[in-house]
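#lab-general

N.A. 3:47 PM
ok so I finally got the sequence cleaned up, no stray characters, all 368 residues accounted for. can someone with queue access submit it? mine expired

B.Y. 3:52 PM
send it over

N.A. 3:53 PM
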Amino acid sequence: MLGYNVPEPDEAMVISGKKSKDGGIPFDVVVGHGKWVMPFFRKVRYLSMAMHEAQIREVCVTTQGIQLDVRAVIAHKVGSDVASIVNAGQRFISEQENEMNQLTGQIFSGHLRSIVGSMTVEQIIRERDTLARQVLEASKREMGSIGLVVDSFQIQSIDDMDSGYISALAAPNIAKVQREAAVERARADQEASKAQQESLRNQADYERETAIKRASIKGETDKANAEASQAGPLAEARVNQEIVREQSLLAQAQADLREQQLISEVVKPAEAEAKRTQIIAEADAKAVEISSAAAAKNNRIALDQQLIEQLPALVGEVAKGLSSSNLTVYNGAEGYNEVMTGVVTQGAALLKSLQSELSGTVIDPEEK
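B.Y. 4:20 PM
back already:
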């Protein structure tokens, strides 16, 4: 649109042509947005706010009089505030990049020479960061006065210009490093040799074990082949042995069976018959004994019966004898009864005596 201007994101728009009062800012500064500009009466310029890089190479002399070739790089840009943009615009708006880099290099080179001149080579080498920080701090004020800010200052290299000083300083450390490196190489060689020997031993062990395994496998294979070749005869022999064993077992079983049959058919019936005969004989003997005892008892009973039947006659005969005898009884009827009782008692004793003689027994005199 005619008369409307917009700067890029990394640019500052500087508008000149306005009247300044009492030493005020001679420019209008616009950043991040657009603005209407009166044509013909105002002029628009653009100032880059992007990062720039300046490189320097300076020969510096230390406090020891040793010359050092120092190389460094500076990262810088225009400050983002209005004052910095105005200061930078007044100095670099025409030849911005070249003039900014050149002036920045001159400022840092002067401070670098000054600070290196106050240090020894050893300090510079050991404290390179300290050197860079001191140079950066010393340059900030001057850089700010021209509207620039420094993001970083890095020393790239330090060279003694073939004087050999730095090499001499490094010699002990180099020798130490070389010794340590030699020790490490020797240790590494020793470890490598040890590892190689271990590998050789492992290889030998492996080959020995392999040979043993091969021999074992060959022996097993030969044994298997031999057993395979003898499998037919051996199997037949085993079968024959099994047949003989089974036949022996069968014969033994048949013999046992025959023995049981003989026991069942002959021995047991014979034993049973003998037992039956014995039982019959014992039964007969018992029957005879019982019959004899019964007969004897019956005979005795009959005899006793006969004796009893004869007892009155015997008593009568005794009485007759008493009546015909010259017997005097003094106590009357009582004496006669006593006589008759004695007669009967004598008759009973006579009967028992006869029974004892007939039965073959002995009569106790007291029982008589």
